[in-house]
Amino acid sequence: MFRELNREIRLEREKENAFWERGFGGIALMGPMLLLMVLRRDLNTSIITASVATVLFAIFLAVTARSLAGKDVLAAVAAYAAVLVVFVGTSMTPLS
Fold first, then answer.
1. Is the Cβ–Cβ distance between 33 and 53 less than 8 Å?
2. Residue 95 confidence (pLDDT)
3. What's residue 94's pLDDT?
4. CA 62, CA 35: separation in Å to the nearest integer?
5. Dihedral angle at the C-alpha atoms of 68, 69, 73, 76, nearest 10 degrees?
6. Read out DSSP for 45-92?
7. b/e map of 8-47 (b: 16 or more CB within 10 Å)?
8. How far lies 21's CA from each of 26, 32, 76, 93, in Å?
9. Residues 33 and 87 sit within 8 Å (Cβ to Cβ)
10. The pTM is what?
């Protein structure tokens, strides 16, 4: 009986954690992109915004994702940075 109660509580916590993780993922991707669209659209602003967002994402993952190995955190941060770099590259207007 106690095992079943603990299982239900564990499953409920896992659902709640998944909700917050997905919410953070959406905000982490959309936040910097919206800032880049609203702020001055020059290269320095874009690079600084992407760099700060990547560092904050890495710190957040390192602190909160205790079940992830170091290589998983590195892979997630690299993928996140790649998405932001692509967004910065496609959002910049040509110089000519």
1. no
2. 55
3. 64
4. 24
5. -70
6. HHHHHHHHHHHHHHHHHHHH-TTS-HHHHHHHHHHHHHHHHHHHHHHS
7. eeeeeeeeeeeeeeeeeeeebbeebbeebeeeeeeeeebe
8. 9, 17, 13, 33
9. yes
10. 0.70
- pLDDT of 79: 93
Phi and psi, residue 43, nearest 5°: -65, -40
- What's the chain's length in residues? 96
The pLDDT value recorded for residue 82 is: 93
The first and second tokens of residue 6, run together, are 């603990």
Domain ranges of the chain: 2-91
Residue by residue, pLDDT tens for the chain (96 residues) are: 455 667 777 777 777 777 777 777 778 878 887 777 777 777 788 888 889 999 999 888 888 877 888 888 889 899 999 998 888 888 776 655
